């Protein structure tokens, strides 16, 4: 892998690669109006996009802004469909091949073959090692307050610039980062933002491993956990991390558990949707509330004769898959017993396969 990216921008700008990006961007979205409209004249639209990028005339469209409330309130900014194709192309051709290999093995967000469950598995593995070595230990768990909104764009661009010597790619990258939405923060809804946010903290990962020499460290996006021997070590590392992040433009760290950044291991660790212990893992309260709401809404819709079995199957199967990675037999049995109305309707076998796994 070369240290810097050279002479690849126009080499990777082809009609075929833009078409592949369209296939990825439209996956599971074929029925959306913007996708249908784009595909009605697909070849012309892709060629126009190709020439805009090649001639340096590409400019992203206007953001569509909306708010979601699950798991917490977030402002989402979404670009038009053709811009999502461009982001797919950019990430696949330049970010994944050149930047992802530089990530440490203990970061798990937005990396193929990893994800939340691999992050939970790795953290529990480290907890068991600490338990075996020391008996008791301390947990330092933090996240960055409003992380996407606090990212310093100048710092982000300087990080990317270290690895990009291709002037055309650097110019295009600059346009993606400084897209007219203010000086600080990146939009949550952009596909590129997931990777930019990961790259932004990649230097923190290397600082943890190579400078502070912390072996038991796991990060998922802006949530990161350190396992250390004593309270004094936890306090020392906390100060060093806060100092380092302030230099990177992240002014505030959240201390999520027990209103303090460090605590003994017997409390467990709330991470990626689970409460994790050395011997087992449980659902966090938010996950329990989610399934209660799903069942409550499904029961109401069924009584009102507006029940959407496909939507319900998708939501409930997703929750069951999440439950598969926890010690949740009794919980799944409890909620499955509340679904007696499913016997009277046609639900595909995949849902029942999940249910029978637990019951």
Any overview of this molecule?
Helices cover 51% and strands 12% of the residues. The chain is of the alpha+beta class and 359 residues long. Strands 3, 4, 5, 6 and 7 form a five-stranded antiparallel β-sheet that branches. Mean pLDDT is 86; it is low at 255-259 and 347-359.
Could you give a short description of this structure?
The protein is built from 14 helices and ten strands. It is globular.
Major sheet description:
5 strands, antiparallel
Distance between the termini: 49 Å
Residue windows where pLDDT falls under 50 for at least 5 positions: 255-259, 347-359
Please tally the β strands and state the result. 10
What general form does the structure show? globular
Overall pLDDT? 86
Could you spell the SSE succession in H and E letters?
A: HHHEEHHEHHHHEEHEEEEEHHHH
Structural class: alpha+beta
User: How helical, in percent, are the residues?
Assistant: 40-55%
What is the gyration radius calculated from CA atoms? 23 Å
Strand content: 5-15%
């Amino acid at each position: 892998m070369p240290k810097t990216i050279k002479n690849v921008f126009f080499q990777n700008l082809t009609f075929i690669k833009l078409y592949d990006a369209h296939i990825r961007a439209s996956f599971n979205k074929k029925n959306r109006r913007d996708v249908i409209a784009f595909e009605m004249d697909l070849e012309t639209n892709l060629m126009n996009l190709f020439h805009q990028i090649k001639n340096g005339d590409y400019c992203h469209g206007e953001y569509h802004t909306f708010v979601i409330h699950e798991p917490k309130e977030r402002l989402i900014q979404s670009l038009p469909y053709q811009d999502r194709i461009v982001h797919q192309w950019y990430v696949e051709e330049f970010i994944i091949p050149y930047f992802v290999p530089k990530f440490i093995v203990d970061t798990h967000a937005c990396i193929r073959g990893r994800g939340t469950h691999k992050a939970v598995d790795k953290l529990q593995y480290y907890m068991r090692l600490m338990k075996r070595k020391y008996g008791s230990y301390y947990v330092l768990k933090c996240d960055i307050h409003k992380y996407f909104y606090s990212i310093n764009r100048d710092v982000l661009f300087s990080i990317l610039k270290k690895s990009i010597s291709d002037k055309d790619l650097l110019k295009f990258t600059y346009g993606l980062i400084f897209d007219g939405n203010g000086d600080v923060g990146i939009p949550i809804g952009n596909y590129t933002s997931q990777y930019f946010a990961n790259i932004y903290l990649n230097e923190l990962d290397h600082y943890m491993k190579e400078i502070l020499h912390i072996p038991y460290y796991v990060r998922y996006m802006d949530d990161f956990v350190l396992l250390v021997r004593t309270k004094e070590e936890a306090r020392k590392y906390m100060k060093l991390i806060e100092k380092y992040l302030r230099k990177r433009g992240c002014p505030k760290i959240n201390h999520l558990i027990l209103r303090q950044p460090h605590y003994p291991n017997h409390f467990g660790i709330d991470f990626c949707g689970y409460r994790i212990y050395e011997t087992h893992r449980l659902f966090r309260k938010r996950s329990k509330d989610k399934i209660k709401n799903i069942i409550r809404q499904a029961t109401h819709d069924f009584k009102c004769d507006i029940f959407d079995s496909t939507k319900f199957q998708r939501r409930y199967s997703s929750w069951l898959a999440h439950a598969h990675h926890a010690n949740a037999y009794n919980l799944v049995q409890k909620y499955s017993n509340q679904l007696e109305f499913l016997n009277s309707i046609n639900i595909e076998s995949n849902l029942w396969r999940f249910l029978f796994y637990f019951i």
